[in-house]
Amino acid sequence: MTPAEIKALVRTVPDFPAPGILFRDITTLIAHGPGLSATLDHLADAARDRGAEAIAGLEARGFIFGAMVAARLGLGFVPLRKPGKLPVDVIGVDYALEYGTARLELDPTLIDQGERVVVVDDLIATGGTALAGADLLRRAGATVDHALFVIDLPELGGGEALRAAGVELWALMAFEGH
């Protein structure tokens, strides 16, 4: 399937979670077998082309796409988790959200020094979570210079924020508006 055909599988829900927001719901894409498979093909090709040695996924939907991309490429998958979910010593990073803060944690023993890790997530908006993930992986010793997304919302500036931090963005599709 082409990216345009895959894009047509994403449902837009107006006024969620607040008035004026156009929510891009990927559950309709995930539930469509051929669309999901094609999405994974595109993501895996992009990760391979960028020299991925491991794939990191951002909780939670980044786990769906990232783990399957890693499996398709025969690479390891590194989950970047919410606090308190890992049973070992972790490193973490706090980051700002629109209304508050959040935290990502990582088991640093999963990273080999200098390993080229590609970040995968379902959607990039402002880039805060992806930036925190890249920072956390770099603190663990990874080389992180690429992040892959199913959806980019370019008006929200996440791509520029990533590029400013030395991380190139690739997205299968983009939607105007937010």
Automatic annotation (TrEMBL):
Coiled coil residues, start to end: none
Keywords: Cytoplasm, Glycosyltransferase, Purine salvage, Transferase
Top-rank taxon: Bacteria
Pathway(s) this gene product operates in, as recorded in its UniProt entry: Purine metabolism; AMP biosynthesis via salvage pathway; AMP from adenine: step 1/1
GO CC annotations, alphabetized: cytoplasm
GO molecular function: adenine binding; adenine phosphoribosyltransferase activity; AMP binding
Subunit structure: Homodimer.
HAMAP family: Aden_phosphoribosyltr (MF_00004)
Name listed for the protein in its UniProt record: Adenine phosphoribosyltransferase
Gene source species: Croceibacterium salegens
